[in-house]
Amino acid sequence: MLAAGEASRMGSIKQLLPYNNSTLLEITIQNALASKARKVYCVLGANSEAIKSQLKNSRATFINNPNWKDGLSSSIVTGVSYLESIKEKTKAILIMLSDQPNVDSDYIDALINLYSKNQDKVIASDYGDKKGVPAIFPKLFNKQLMRLKGDKGAKDFLNNKEINIITLASKNRGVLKDIDTLEDYNKLLDK
After folding, report:
1. Which residues, listed in sequence order, are joined to residue 116 by a DSSP beta bridge?
2. Going residue by residue through the chain (191 aa), what tens digit of pLDDT does each one get?
3. Which of 67, 135, 137, 167 could form a disulfide with 126 if both were Cys (CB 3.0 to 4.6 A apart)?
4. Cα→Cα distances 101→27, 82, 88, 92, 114, Å
């Protein structure tokens, strides 16, 4: 779970915005914990102490990204590096964003089920004109993930025509909507 950004477009700590008697970050963590995912790791950076002090959910492991200002890719590198350093026996890594509260356990499980039938392939979310996260990366892609740079996260990697990537389309397009601005947040609350 990537949650290290400072949410400059939002103007406040986006991860802690109230939503469904919780916060955006807690909802996404709860959705991941309710899925078939074995463990949940959350990469924090900006405002990490304030965020951790407000979270009630202690079943996720928090990882600090001291390089969060280097962009989204630095959080992926930090998370993958952490898993490599603890010798975590993972077959694959599911990368999610903390600002997609509608990515529920059913959607996560659908990604995991698709991966279980295609364990040597990257499984990505289908956004129509592009591929994105949530996405599952088999362990054999860890070295490539650790070379990512900038604020694009895995976008270029996932949309590389040379890599055989399987996509999953959501039946409800709103599932993959991320909350970047106050307008996005207000639309989420109006649902």
Report:
1. none
2. 999 988 777 778 899 999 999 999 999 999 999 999 989 999 999 999 999 988 865 689 999 999 999 999 999 999 999 999 987 788 999 999 999 999 999 999 999 999 999 999 999 999 988 999 999 999 999 999 999 998 888 888 999 888 889 999 888 878 999 898 889 999 999 87
3. 167
4. 6, 25, 27, 22, 21
SS3 (DSSP) at 132: strand
State the Cα–Cα distance between residues 59 and 103, nearest whole angstrom.
19
Query: Which alpha helices (DSSP H) does the chain contain, by range?
Result: 24-33, 48-54, 72-85, 105-117, 142-145, 155-158, 182-190
In which residue are the tokens 């103007």 written?
Answer: 11
Amino acid at 125: S
Q: How many whole angstroms separate alpha carbon 190 and alpha carbon 143?
A: 42
